[in-house]
Amino acid sequence: MLSQRTRYAIRALLHLGDRFGEGPVQLTEIAETQNIPSKFLTVILSEMKRAGFVETMRGKEGGYWLARSPDQITYGDIVRATRGSLALVPCAARLAYTPCDNCISEAECRLRAAMLAVRDETANILDRMSLAEKLPVDEIAAQ
What InterPro entries does the entry give (predicted)? Predict the structure, then answer.
């Protein structure tokens, strides 16, 4: 499951992607529009700057903007930059691996094998989806 930090980062970068090429976007605009606490958003955008996704400028006319075009930033990039996990079970996580408490034999566990495949396929899908894509929200929500 994606962490709150990862979900906020994706929403903030999507907002900046929608405003790409229009100049700096104020933190308060992103926070209010995306319903993200300002203090947490400041930390997240600092991480996104270190990851090379965001540029900033201080001052009255300052703000945040994408460092690259939206089609060059994928959901997978953002998940990895926020140390998010795509694993549905702890033993399938790459960065936060933890053996399952009641596992008899991890090497023979078919559930783990299935969840590793799900994790890898999810990563492949997210690596193909960029911030530039306008997904049909209404159609997806109805499914």
Answer: Tscrpt_reg_Rrf2 (IPR000944), WH-like_DNA-bd_sf (IPR036388), WH_DNA-bd_sf (IPR036390)
Six token digits for residue 98: 């933890």
Q: State the pTM of this model.
A: 0.83
For 128-133, which contacts have Cβ atoms below 8 Å and span 24 or more sequence positions?
A: 128/74, 129/74, 129/75, 129/76, 130/70, 130/71, 130/72, 130/73, 130/74, 130/75, 131/13, 131/14, 131/17, 131/66, 131/70, 131/71, 131/73, 131/74, 131/75, 132/17, 132/69, 132/70, 132/71
Q: pLDDT tens digits for 4-15?
A: 999 999 999 999
pLDDT one-digit tens code per residue, 55-109 = 999 988 889 999 999 999 999 999 989 987 788 888 888 877 888 888 888 888 9
